[in-house]
Amino acid sequence: MQQTTAPLMTQTGEQFLAEGRAAITAAQADVAAFKALAKDASPTQAADALDQIDRTLNTVSGRIHLYSQVHPNGDMREAAEVLEREISAFSTELSLDREMFDRVAAVNLDGVDDGQVLRLFEHSLRDFRRSGVDLDEDSRDKVGALKNELVEIGQEFDRNIIGGGREFIISEGPAGLAGLPQDYIDAHPADENGEVRISTDSQDKVPFMMFAERGDLRKAYNHLCNNRAVPENLGVLQNLLEKRHELAELLGFANWADYVTGDKMAKTGANARSFIERILDVSKARATAENDELLAEKRTVDPGADTLFEYERGFYIERLKLRKYDFDSQLVRPYLAYDKVRAGVMDVAAKLYGVEFRLNDETERWHESVDVFDMLDGGEVVARLFLDMHPRDDKFKHAAMFDMTTGRAGGPIPEGVLVCNFPEPKDGDPGLMLFDEVTTYFHEFGHLLHYLFSGKQRFQAFGGIATEWDFVEVPSQLFEEWAWDPVILAGFAKHHETGEPITPELVAKLRSAEEYGKGLQANGQMFYAMLALSYYETDPKGLDTTERLIELKQQIMFSPHEPDTHMQAAFGHLHGYSAMYYTYMWSLVISKDFFSKFKGDLMNTETATAYRNKVTGRGGEADADDLCTDFLGREYGFEAFEAWLNA
Ligand SMILES: [Zn+2]
């Protein structure tokens, strides 16, 4: 596929810093202007004045976060980091500005029937109250101090995880790597003492737990992995839980789980708990059957075995897949050259939604490997996308969508960015992808479409992905479904040498193999979700986080706890997501229900258009519950999820 030849950015760090600071100064002026509004200003004028603060910040805030993560120039990244702190300080100050809160609360909404204006003020007041602005001065000071302390505790928790990686030494050398793919063995040669060292990072861990034949080594390695950041993070976690609980109580909530879910679809910690229990319930039969099958597989090697240990699950799943489906993930790679996949993803989106993607050779980009496209609808440019898809030094290491500009009706068009680390086609290397990477491409593109389609709200505050956190993974997980379809896959997955499309037989094998273990997968995910929730739904004073973990493992999981391990110390979501690990599964349930509307006809443009008009196109202008009901014509349910799980 063609690449963009758009020019490279010439802005320096110094210029960017000046631009960012000017925007913050302008936003401060917007705050002053809102406070100075005439008493007889109409609610609509007040709403526009309030929204103006977001509109002003929108000119730089997206790029600030983006550049701090991806910009190739160190001085731009540094300037972006400085601006990130300055914007965050501005936002915190605004959220605790009592005068501003009083002014917003004083806008007279009696008799107003403009739903968007009402929603804007309702959300603004809710967010102010959730930040503690309406408390007495003494409590407000305490809230401020606790928040600052929590930033530091959270950073310490994350830092200890990053710095808590360990080295596993295999004294018998390469023989200890038996069963692993050749490229893994090549990447871990023996040192001068004949020893092999592997790290506890996921790129080393995942293949080792799946393929290493030596069970005793997997056991020892698993023990090491589950003691990362131990003991240091056990105390930090305790502190994090206690301070968050204290803050939640100050803000008028029974516990942190209730506080953090208060503005999400779940609404309370109790609802999140019922959800987790329900998923555990509906996945139980499937998970039990899978566990029995894996145990039977283990008995072919160890006839007397009556337990499958946690360091054996991944290994026996792979063995079973290979025996049952005769599937090896390397078989599909020749069909998945990067350029073909990119064309395929964009082609599906274009056909489904009746839009066109056109290469843009004029808009500046930050690195020569970035491609810029305009999205056209009815011949008109309605959005812009930037694809920064290949690894390089000093770049974000995962896959995510970043916002650059949130669009608005009558304002800027939306500009969204995908940042990924997929193989790069160059010098004759086609950049062959794994199927997992292809589903990631569809996943992230689903986020991007949500962002681009929603960027036309009347108020800035409701544009982009301004929806509830537990709904955010619906459009992304939904779009993944298209990657699994044999006809759609065959449309772009063509052998890089012969041009032959992938066969339906190979796709069928791929699907069976990739979907094997989804009962146990759901079970494991709900264990993590329950662990996170349970840490945050009670007073943590006197809580022994390891005891709680052992208790929940006994209740939920099929494998016993491995003695003297503490996985919670390196469970990073306990900081970033706090009690909300459940959100992925929550979104998946909704996404499976949405997918059922396509009734097996994936290229049904009528359904796709309804989905765009009723869900993604509406951003945060309505509650996610209402978007679901609008699209489905009823409340969302669990039936489609259960049908998928048990298929
Ligand atoms: Zn996602």
Q: What does it look like?
A:
With about 650 residues, the protein is of the alpha+beta class. Among the domains are: about 15-130, Glutathione S-transferase Yfyf (Class Pi), Chain A, domain 2 (Up-down Bundle); about 165-225, no CATH class; about 335-515, Neurolysin, domain 3 (Orthogonal Bundle), CATH 1.10.1370. It has helices at about 15-35, 45-60, 60-70, 75-95, 100-105, 115-130, 135-165, 180-185, 200-210, 215-225, 230-250, 255-260, 270-300, 310-325, 340-355, 435-455, 475-480, 485-490, 505-515, 520-535, 545-555, 575, 585-595, 605-615, 625-630, 640-645; strands at about 165-170, 195-200, 355-360, 370-375, 380-390, 400-405, 415-420. It has a 5-stranded mixed sheet. A hairpin with a 2-residue loop joins strand 4 (about 370-375) and strand 5 (about 380-390). The chain binds zinc ion. Zinc ion binds near residues 443, 447, 473 and 476.
Topology:
Layout: H1 13-35, H2 43-58, H3 61-70, H4 74-95, H5 98-106, H6 115-131, H7 137-163, E1 167-170, H8 182-187, E2 196-199, H9 202-211, H10 215-225, H11 232-250, H12 256-261, H13 269-299, H14 310-325, H15 338-353, E3 356-359, E4 371-377, E5 380-388, E6 400-405, E7 415-419, H16 435-454, H17 473-480, H18 486-492, H19 504-515, H20 518-536, H21 545-556, H22 573-576, H23 583-596, H24 605-614, H25 624-632, H26 639-645
Parallel strand pairs: 5-7
Antiparallel strand pairs: 1-2, 3-4, 4-5, 6-7
Helix pairs in contact: 1-2, 1-4, 3-4, 7-11, 13-14, 13-20, 14-19, 15-16, 15-18, 16-17, 17-23, 20-21, 23-26
Bound molecules: zinc ion.
